[in-house]
Write a structure and sequence with these properties.
This protein is an alpha+beta fold and 216 residues long. It has 2 domains: 65 residues, no CATH class; 137 residues, Rieske [2Fe-2S] iron-sulphur domain (Rieske Iron-sulfur Protein, 3-layer Sandwich). The protein is 22% helix and 28% strand. The chain has 5 helices and 15 strands. The strands form 4 sheets. A 5-stranded antiparallel β-sheet has the order 3-10-11-12-13, with no helix packed on it. Strands 4-7-8-9 form a 4-stranded mixed β-sheet, covered by helices on one side. β12 and β13 form a beta hairpin. It is rod-shaped and about 100 Å long.
């Protein structure tokens, strides 16, 4: 029997509308029993899709945490060689060196960067003077970048353990990825400039440096 939800009148299982008030009736007694056995009505498709999306998102977050968080800068990942470094317990200052400019390329000696771990040099051309830096990551990659913490305008940094630190505001970035760790300028690490290594020299395209503009 079907019971009307409005007036509580008993109706035949085959009835679709209440014989007393004319209101629509719910599913058959068989359907009601089936739903009780199964637990509940089938979830709509959109709910299933939503649950899958949430599960995938949570899996992505879990992987991000397990993998150590930030993804390495794509430009950094393509540079340098296979030699690793261990800076644990060390504070490494910048060493000032002279760069060479010829045939549209700025270059510095790879051996000097390997020895000093981090160097600073300046490019002068077309009425512009741009400070640059190069350092070796823990994985042995050679990073070249504009030597500027743009919000505070500092042009000097140092390596401390596994971080790159601004000498002025002491903002810290992950040495391997340049992802911000702490400090007021975390979103503005030294901007990476691509390089190539040939014949024991690190080369940077002059046009790329000339095209650089501060982000703030």
């Amino acid at each position: 029997m079907k019971t009307c939800s409005k007036c509580k009148t008993k109706n035949d299982d085959s009835s679709r509308f209440c014989k007393e008030c004319g209101g629509p009736l719910s599913g058959s007694a068989f359907q009601d029993k089936k739903e009780k056995v199964l637990g509940q009505k089938r979830k709509p498709p959109w709910m299933t899709v939503s649950l899958i999306v949430v599960a995938v998102a949570l899996a992505g977050v879990a992987y991000w945490v397990v993998a150590g968080g930030a993804k390495p800068d794509a430009t950094i990942g393509t540079q340098g060689g296979p030699v690793g470094n261990d800076y644990a317990g060390q504070t490494i200052p910048m060493a000032d060196i002279q760069a060479k400019v010829e045939k549209g390329k700025i270059s510095i000696p790879l051996d000097v960067v390997k020895e000093k771990k981090m160097v600073r040099f300046e490019y002068e051309g077309k009425d512009r003077k741009i400070p640059l830096l190069s350092y070796m990551t823990l994985a042995g990659r050679v990073v070249t970048a504009v030597s500027m913490c743009e919000p505070c305008r500092s042009t000097r940094f140092h390596i401390k353990d596994k971080t790159l630190v601004c000498n002025a505001c002491y903002t810290e970035w992950n040495l391997e990825t340049l992802q911000g760790i702490r400090g007021g300028c975390m979103n503005y690490p030294p901007e990476v400039i691509p390089n190539t290594v040939e014949n024991n020299r690190i080369f940077i395209e002059e046009t790329v440096v000339l095209g650089w503009k501060p982000r703030v």
